[in-house]
Amino acid sequence: MHNPSEHSLLSAIVDDLAARGWSQQSLFLPAELSRGLAAECRRRYAEGELNPAGVGRGAAQEIREAIRGDQIQWIDPGESDVCDRYLGKMDGLRQAINQGLFLGLEDFECHFALYPPGAFYKRHLDRFRDDDRRMVSAVLYLNEGWQVDDGGQLRMFLAEGVEHDVQPLAGSLVVFLSGDVPHEVLPAGRERLSLTGWFRRRGNDPF
Ligand code: OGA
Ligand code: MN
């Protein structure tokens, strides 16, 4: 089903995850698809469909704003062609990770995120204390012509005190183990769009 270059892209991500727990691919999506996704995100924002993101569970509004300032909307299959194409690609990645790393990933949940100018997300881990189903985080960026001076980098805190910054450039994908890599989003000087998601394994609850 995958063409050879798509196959080697997925293998590179799986190999990186196995070797060091994270991967960065600057050409994960064709420009045409990331442009379509950016337009879809902007359209939803203009129509008031994005809402302030929560923090963990049940945190108060003031606490949330001091921690993260992005606006989000969760994506479901069947809402738009561009989103479905993205979900299809991520399902291919889910299967590749399962074949290579035996993580037993069962699904992928994701949301659009829009950081208005000045917004940030303080250092955190993506795995909740009371819900450990999130195994692998995947962030796709949708910003054309992003400059270093625009800020808004994803800063990852890796082993041995190493920090790695990712520019949120259109078509780039960053993937990392949700329980292992603390990270933050630095304040952005211009509107910053992304699609953020998590591959999850089955939960322990009996239902
Ligand atoms: C998140 C997050 C990173 C980014 O939404 O949990 O850390 O670069 N996003 O947008
Ligand atoms: Mn995060």
From TrEMBL:
Cited PROSITE patterns: FE2OG_OXY
Keyword check for Secreted: no
InterPro entries: HIF_prolyl_hydroxylases, Oxoglu/Fe-dep_dioxygenase_dom, Pro_4_hyd_alph, Pro_4_hyd_alph_FE2OG_OXY
Coiled-coil segments on the chain, per record: none
The keyword Iron appears for this protein: yes
Cofactor(s) demanded: L-ascorbate
Name of a matching Pfam family: 2OG-FeII_Oxy_3
Domain Fe2OG dioxygenase: 106-201
The entry's keywords: Dioxygenase, Iron, Metal-binding, Oxidoreductase, Vitamin C
Protein's recorded name: 2OG-Fe(II) oxygenase
Organism: Pseudomonas muyukensis
